[in-house]
Amino acid sequence: MRNFKFDYVSLVVFGFILFLILPLPELTQADNAPAAPESQVYTIEQLQGGNIQVLEAGASQWEAAAEGQEVEAGDEVKVGGGSQAVLMLGSETSLHLDENSDMKVDQLSSNDTGGFFSHLEILAGRLLSDVKKNLQDSHSSFEVESNGVVCGVRGTAFEVSAQGDDSEVSTHEGEVEVTGGGETHRVSAGNFSSFKRGRFLLLRRLDRLEAQRFQRWRTIRPLLFKRRLLRLEAIRNHARQPWIRKHPRMGMGKPFLKRDVEKKREKRRLLRKKMREQEVKQ
Hints:
The protein is of the alpha+beta class. Helix content is 25%, strand content 38%.
């Protein structure tokens, strides 16, 4: 497994300098308000390398990504060789896209209890998701899909990779419910699972390099949060312009009610049951 290629030493130094010369922006009630604009969009907070593009829903051409750009339901982010990107949903959910990765935001909506529903699809490459803890308190739901394998969590940190027909899941914190090929497995922290054409292959412990990869991310994580706060502070002080979307939304950002989430889960449960019954008959 490749290590993070972020120059995290430089990033640590940069963050330390910021702490010395700049005060930590105060969080107001508006930052935590359920109706805040960023609560229903992913924001690109960090770019490394120049080969990162976004295809907005409704657009026909890819365009270069920019820090502060908002990524909504239906949008797709592609990261080329020698490049990486970090996106955040609010202040507590982060995504790291490795080089040669392609991710689509399939669904992203608020619900009626102050939470959200996010369904991402990793088409190629590797995605690290560091998800807000205790999502069940707001009936939120976070899912990543890869080659027909769906990973659902309630607050954890995990990686999903897609290479051809293969999918791999590394759980670093918490527990991931992985569903594929009519089977459901709960993969706890410190474990790795793999799938072929959606079917479960093996479960093992994370190796040393895989574990070290996440430890590097934990070093970078607070510095990215600091950068985000500074960006929001600059927008509030009119020192920076907020992102303006180039293409109109496609109507996929409507509130995703709790009952809709439950219907989706029940539909997947019935589908898994039907697939198991068919396998038994065969």
